[in-house]
Fold:
Amino acid sequence: MTQKIIPNVWCDGNAAEAGEFYSAALPNTTSTLAARYPDEVPDWQAEYAGQPLVVDLVVDLVVDGFRIMLINAGDDFRPTPSISFMLNFDPLLFDGDADAARAALDRTWAALSEEGQALMPLDEYPFSPHYGWVQDRYGVSWQLMLTDPKGDPRPFVITQLMFSGDVQDQAREAVEFYTSLLDDAAIGTVIAYPQRTGTAGAGSVMFGEFHVGDQWFSMMDSNVEHEFGFTPGVSLEVRCREQAEIDRLWEALSAVPEAEQCGWLVDRYGISWQIVPENMGELMARPGAYERMLNMKKLVIADF
Structure:
């Protein structure tokens, strides 16, 4: 799978520990230290000098696995269920064995639930014979679903965006906006609420999906009032081929000037994005690159 957008999870100084946890909890998953903080950092980052900066998590149940980046930082932000990861335990991924798929789901649920919190208990629901939603010990939310192999094939991992609070009922508008900006992107199935249901208005999105290339996402408008919303605790990193693409996406997406820093921005819906060059690793290997990046808002390749 070609993955244009890589979710980043903000970790409170424990990215390496979290990587080890997920590599044990998720099927066929590995974690690798991708980058360290420089030995010389600003005084406000002194505690991180030489420490892990990014841990690369690859869920490799299928060929070309799904990547999640774990960022080693402080306690400024925490993930919320507004962005969660759906895990599709399709029997086709387990040689057509539904019992094996269900057993793998149960093992993953048990591991993620340890010191975590069930948001929807593992049970039978109208949309799945075996489903549960859990927030793990690090605050990351996962939806585990036993899927019907007769349906259209979907990847094992799908990132879901849930709109509530100040952006209630804006899922369809947001996704139309995102797919208009990203190459090879389109909206798929959208199921609307037929009538007002809790906080969700009639016609808003009960469940929908879109894709960027062959990477799939889902979206929904919550029908329950929540105290949480989108935060930088989970951000979406877009790998750009050239400066022109960085400039175009930055101009279209950034809606909170005070949030602009080191390639990070916050859009009109509150979702955090990182707009970065696809050769970011190579750029950061240049002497003094880290310090120069700290002084940037939008990343400028020529300035590295």
Q: What stands out?
A: The chain has two domains: 5-75+233-303, 83-221.
